[in-house]
């Protein structure tokens, strides 16, 4: 069973940057896609982006394109979410999660992801 642990959250001013990390235990990290989700105040958990197992296989939600970048280092069993030009509306709890490789529009639904981290708080002040 792969366990995921997020870190790197914190308080930042609008326009600032944070890099979140998602460290995974287990030997199957490299064969799984890793997704990022967030839950902002008063909202449902939403998809942020996902990185697949092949180079360049990355998808982002429209609201983060151009600001957030997902990457992974399989040698370190770690995925990253680089967040730039943060806005107050980005405030929330950010989660990473894994899923087996998946294609199709339904693959961005949280139910497809079978292991989740505990989340890390990101707060962006105005």
Highlighted features:
126 residues, mainly beta, seven-stranded mixed β-sheet, four-stranded antiparallel β-sheet, 0% helix
Strand content: over 45%
- Give the C-alpha Rg: 14 Å
Helical percentage? under 10%
By DSSP (H or I, 4+ residues per run), the number of helices equals: 0
H/E series: EEEEEEEEEEE
Detail the poorly predicted runs: none
Largest sheet: 7 strands, mixed
- What number is the mean pLDDT? 94
> What overall geometry do the principal axes of the alpha carbons give?
globular
Oligomer: single chain
How many β-strands, per DSSP? Answer: 11
- Measured distance between first and last alpha carbons: 40 Å
- The secondary structure category is mainly beta
Describe this structure in a few short sentences.
The protein is mainly β and 126 residues long. The chain has strands at 4-7, 10-13, 18-24, 33-39, 45-51, 58-60, 68-73, 78-83, 92-99, 115-116, 120-125.
């Amino acid at each position: 069973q792969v366990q995921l642990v997020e870190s790197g959250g914190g308080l930042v001013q609008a326009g600032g940057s944070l890099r979140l990390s998602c460290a995974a235990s287990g030997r199957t990290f490299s064969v799984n896609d890793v997704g990022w989700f967030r839950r902002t105040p008063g909202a449902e958990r939403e998809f942020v982006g996902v990185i697949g197992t092949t180079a360049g296989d990355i998808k982002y939600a429209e609201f983060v394109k151009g600001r957030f970048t997902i990457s992974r280092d399989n040698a370190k069993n770690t995925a990253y979410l680089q967040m730039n030009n943060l806005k107050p509306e980005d405030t929330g709890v950010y989660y990473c999660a894994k899923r087996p490789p998946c294609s199709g529009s339904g693959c961005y639904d949280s139910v497809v992801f079978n292991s989740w981290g505990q989340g890390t708080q990101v707060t962006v002040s105005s």
